[in-house]
Amino acid sequence: MDYGESESLILHKELNAYFLLIDDKKARTIAENFGVNCIGTLGILSFAKSQKIIKELRPLFKILLDN
């Protein structure tokens, strides 16, 4: 886990947040070992679609893959 991810974990605890947005697999595993609920970019996009905030996932996935 690098500095930014460790700071995110600290902020998550300070804010008593429900989720920690994190994509790095190693950092996510460490956070989950501390009992933190983690969600990644794909999870956020999937949730947004389920809430009808966005209509389609495919165009967004394409953007993510192209970058």
SSE layout and pairings?
Blueprint: H1 3-15, E1 20-21, H2 25-33, E2 38-39, H3 41-50, H4 58-66
Parallel strand pairs: 1-2
Question: How would you portray this structure in words?
Answer:
It is a single chain. With 67 residues, the chain is mostly helical. It has one domain. Helices cover 61% and strands 6% of the residues. It contains four helices and two strands, in the order αβαβαα. The protein has helices spanning 3-15, 25-33, 41-50, 58-66, and strands spanning 20-21, 38-39. It has a two-stranded parallel sheet. α2 (25-33) links the parallel β1 and β2. The longest helix is centred in the N-terminal third of the chain and has 13 residues, at 3-15. The mean pLDDT is 93.
Counting DSSP E segments of at least 2 residues, the number of strands comes to 2
Q: Characterize the largest beta sheet: strand count, sense, and whether it forms a barrel.
A: 2 strands, parallel
Query: Helix fraction?
Result: 55-70%
SS-based structural class?
mainly alpha
- Structure annotation, total helices: 4
Which parts are unreliable, with pLDDT below 50 for 5 consecutive residues or more?
A: none
Shape: globular
Task: Name its key features.
mainly alpha, 2 strands, 67 residues, two-stranded parallel sheet, 4 helices
In short:
This protein is mainly alpha-helical and 67 residues long.
